[in-house]
Amino acid sequence: MNTPLRRVALAMMGMIVLLLANTTYVQVIKSDDYRNDPRNQRVLYEEYSRERGKIIVAGGGVIATSEETNNTKLRFLRKYPNGPAYAPVTGFYSVSYSPTQLEKAENPILNGTDSALFVRRLSDLITGRDPKGANVETTVNPKVQEAAYKQMTDKGFTGSVVALRPDTGEILGMVSTPSYDPNRIATHDSSARQKAWVELNDDKDKPMLNRTISENYPPGSTFKLVLAAAALENGMGKDHQLTAAPNIQLPGTRTRLENFDGNKCGSAATASLEEALARSCNTAFAELAGQLGETKLRNQAKKFGIGEQDLKIPMSVVPSSLGDIPDDAALFQTGIGQRDVKLTPLQDVMIAATIANGGMRMEPQLKKRIVTHDVSVLDEIEPKQAERAMSASSAETLKQMMIKSEERTTGPGKISGVTIASKTGTAEHGANPKLTKPHAWYVAFAPADKPKIAVVVMVEDGGDRGLEATGGSVAAPIGRAVIRAGLEGG
Amino acid sequence: MGRPAAGTNPSLGPVSTPQAPQVQTRRGTELAMLGFAAGLVTLALAIADGNQEQELTRQILYYGVAFMALFGLAHLAVRKWAPYADPLILPCVALVNGLGLVMINRLDPAVIQRAKDLQRFVPSESAPKQVVWTAAGLVVFAVVMWLVKDHRMLAKYGYTAGLVGLIALALPGLLPSSLSEVNGAKIWLRLPGLGSIQPGEFAKILLLIFFAAFLVSKRDLFMAAGRRFAGMELPRARDLAPLLVAWALSVGVLVLEKDLGTSLLFFGIVLVMLYIATERVAWLVIGLTFFIGGCLIAYQLFGHVQVRVQTWLDPFADYFGKGNQISQSLFSLGTGGLGGTGLGAGRPELVTFSQSDFIIAAIGEEFGFIGLAALLIIYLLLVMRGLRSALAVRDTFGKLLAGGLAFAVCWQVFIVVGGVTKLIPLTGLTAPFLSHGGSSLIANYAAIALLLRISDAARRPAPQTPKGPKPQQAPIAEASTVLVERPT
User: Fold this and answer.
1) Does A8 lie at the interface with B, CB-CB under 8 angstroms?
2) Which of A128, A367, B141, B479 could crosslink B449 through cysteines, CB 3.0-4.6 Å?
3) Across the interface, do B423 and A18 touch by the CB < 8 Å criterion?
4) d(CA A276, CA A29)
């Protein structure tokens, strides 16, 4: 009986050797694959043991930072000192939920794993310092950002504000309201975190939605800037005459397209392009769209960046589009920024900023610099030209037209000594546009002679004016206040 | 071969006779090795606490001393009732048991915190229960050693053991789920007010005793020559019946209980015992054919078997569903890598059942491949010492029982570790002496007590018979000549 026992002993040794071999495969050969698998939460916990980089605004103010706690597992707590105002910029960084906004887009830099930080990591290892992530300096001007946030929240508006520096594409401000406090999602108190998560996700006002880049809206009359640019680029001057009729019939239908409040476009039989833009006459621009045709309209829209699929600032921006234009009726409606035209507020302000910059579109950018924790600059983001959207002379003409438009725009808040160029919009939406509160738009830049700031204000569902809302009455005062804040800063 | 009176008192030693060589009891070695194990366990406890940044207090030393005291008592039991037992088996068990305790204790706060994070049912602490079970296991260990003065007396109770074992095995499958189901496996016996036990763990030992007794008594039958085929002597068809019965019972009953691990465990043990008893490779071939056939049938018939196989082949395909457990286990092991994260510094609680079925992953994560390999070597040492006793003991029943017990431990380790490391499909079994679980621990201590009893018999010097020297049988003499009382 000892022979089989000896063989069983051999078999048992074989079994253990097999286990050892397989364990070697799993723990030694495949180790890195398993360790770095994004689904392996240990990576996240390891990140929490390193000090994450700060997010900083222009002037050095900190809008996201990591604080050491006495928790051993999650050593650092992410904090957002002015959370709600900057939430669309920072996003959040949480134990349970995927990060958003800059916290997501710049995660490798902030957590220190980016290959650009490799040498730094190595030296930290050798010198025995705790490895840290690098800081991200943003282009955000805190005065602009906070003024915009205050304006929107004081009035209780739902909507967004984006401000750009026209000559560089730097994003000076990015506000989405109602906002939320990212600290509630970043907290290490799991039950509070989960409660906040459920509450914010169930909120019908969608506080966690970044309305500036993650949602697109009908731009209404602010879209007339694209049409006007197309007209100027195609040889029509600012005196090009268009219909002044209070309403026109859409080709091939019985539907009539009206001017705002059914007004005639000025006193004459026809209206110049300049007057039509200043008065924002729908009939004139519908006719203009028909004259230009779909191709020219699309070409111009594309030059302003509409339709770009993978714009990153570095967060991904939802593409804007004109939608389908199957017939002339659709072309007419598209011409006044209705039908299926959908722009993100960022796209809308890019149009104004391009005009302000003499027709050259700049890549919008939220990141200014990457600085390591010992304040050496790792990366400096240079302004980048995207595409010439229109000639400098056409841009100059359009700017003058926008100054006229601003002069006709009502609403308080005009700044003495500063010439603003602007365009308002009152966008109808919903299944029954006449009974649905319109979105109020205001897009502007200033000072007109040497633009330093371009801004868009979009207030959803009429703000405090309901059905009576217009871009001028609701959005313009906020836009002017933001411009004032931006110019004060120099 | 009656018990020598002197054997119960090791200090007296064997009666000095000129021809009897002095056989050392090696109890001193056992005590020293136990001390070594206790030292390692205490060190591990201190490291775990230190890495979790808890205050290092003198408490840890007390725990270490208590651990040593507990196993010291077990050592005294061995000294008294099995003085010639193998000196390495108990220290190996103590070390594995101690490391399991440290791991379970280290995981307690993490597991509780995680349950809170996920807003799941928050379990109570497992370590205190495991300590109680360890103590209970050692009591059972001593009782078995005291009751079973000679392992051959167990052969008398072979059929009784078989019947009780079978009932214990079948009971959870027959009882309503409310009394027998925990976490989807119908392998429990819920005693209201007392907690739950897994009768299958005890059935394992009872059935081992039965098979050993049965195979020894019917050995001649099995050895009877059948036809030769392809160089093997085939058993006669009618002799296949016991194997068929075992196959049908263990597999059939356990498929009802949805516990593939135990099913695999039983069938493997029966097969190997049959092979040891008959020395016929044919049994292995036939058994494996049955086994493969059974697997194919089970795969066709049962959805949960198919799921197991699919998650084995590619656990990441269904990462958020069925493949999650094994994926988490692989992440855990992979993160540990060669050297491990250090005890208390990893995240093994991210694996579900990290204190029981997946404790191997926790060990692999925090001790690394090196630690896990060391653990496997300790297991290997343990079962090899058991098998050595089987080789050395003089009676067939003892050989078969010891061989079966040693193989059972090894086979269980293979199924558990293989499942957790994705070598074979995952089945729900506990790692012997390591995992959290009272039934498994207590039953395994009973098994170890039997193994020590047999090893004691193997090493004990031949007794002096009053009627002058009758030539002792050489140890290699095969047991067909040994008289074994038949069970009545």
Assistant:
1) yes
2) B141
3) yes
4) 71
Q: Are A230 and A300 in contact (CB under 8 A)?
A: yes
A239 touches A277 (CB < 8 A): no
Q: What integer best gives the mean pLDDT of chain B?
A: 83
Question: For A447, which DSSP code?
Answer: S
* Phi, psi dihedrals of residue A145, rounded to the nearest 5°: -60, -50
Sign of the alpha-carbon dihedral angle for B79, B83, B85, B88: positive
Closest Cβ–Cβ partner in B279, B422, B423 for A1: B279
pLDDT in tens, B70-109: 999 999 999 999 999 999 999 999 999 999 999 999 999 8
Q: What is the pLDDT of residue B385?
A: 95
Angle at A273 between CA A270 and CA A275, to 5 degrees: 75
Query: Hey, is the C-beta of A385 within 8 angstroms of any chain B C-beta?
Result: no
Distance (Å) from the C-alpha of residue A6 to the closest C-alpha of chain B? 8
DSSP string, A6-23: HHHHHHHHHHHHHHHHHH
Q: How many residues does chain B have?
A: 488
Residue with tokens 């296991």: B137
Residue A43 banded pLDDT, cuts 50, 70, 90? confident
CB contacts, 8 Å: A72 with chain B: 52-53
State yes or no: pLDDT of B230 exceeds 90. no
Interface check for A195 against chain B (CB to CB < 8 A): the answer is no
Amino acid at B220: D
Tell whether the model's pLDDT for residue B480 goes beyond 70: no
Q: Identify all chain A residues contacting B48, using CB atoms and an 8 Å cutoff.
A: none
Q: Out of A5, A16, A30, whose CB is closest to B276?
A: A5
Q: Mean pLDDT score of chain A, rounded to an integer?
A: 90
ipTM value of the model?
A: 0.88
Segment A55-61 mean pLDDT: 92
Global pTM? 0.64
pLDDT at site B69 = 94
C-alpha A335: how far from its chain's center?
24
Residue A57 — φ and ψ, nearest 5°? -100, 170
| Pair of tokens at residue B132 | 């109680």
Q: Which two tokens stand for residue B23?
A: 């056989």
Please choose, from the candidates A224, A221, A236, A351, the residue with its C-alpha nearest in 3D space to the C-alpha of residue A291. A236
Q: pLDDT tens digits, residue range B304-348?
A: 778 888 889 898 888 878 888 899 999 999 999 998 888 888 888
Provide the pLDDT confidence category of residue B478 given band limits of 50, 70 and 90.
very low
Which residue is closest to A188 within chain B, CA to CA?
B117
Q: How far apart are the first and last CA of chain B?
A: 20
Residue A220 DSSP symbol: G
Q: Which residue has the tokens 């960046």?
A: A305
**How far does A35 lie from chain B, in Å, by closest CA?**
5
Q: Are A91 and A182 in contact (CB under 8 A)?
A: yes
Q: How far is B6 from chain A (nearest CA, A)?
A: 30
B129's tokens: 């229960």
Contact A22 B391 (CB under 8 A): no
pLDDT at A48 over 90: no
Q: Which of B272, B335, B379 sits opposite A34 (nearest CB)?
A: B335
- Whether the predicted pLDDT of B18 surpasses 90: no
d(CA A238, CA A136): 44
List the single residue in A30, A37, A190 with the smallest CB-CB distance to B117: A190
DSSP 8-state assignment for residue B194? T
Separation of alpha carbons A219 and A223, rounded Å: 6
Report the C-alpha dihedral over residues B302, B307, B309, B314, rounded to 10 degrees: 170
Per DSSP, what are the bridge partners of residue A369? A137, A380
Residue A65 and residue A81 in contact, taking contact as beta carbons nearer than 8 Å: yes
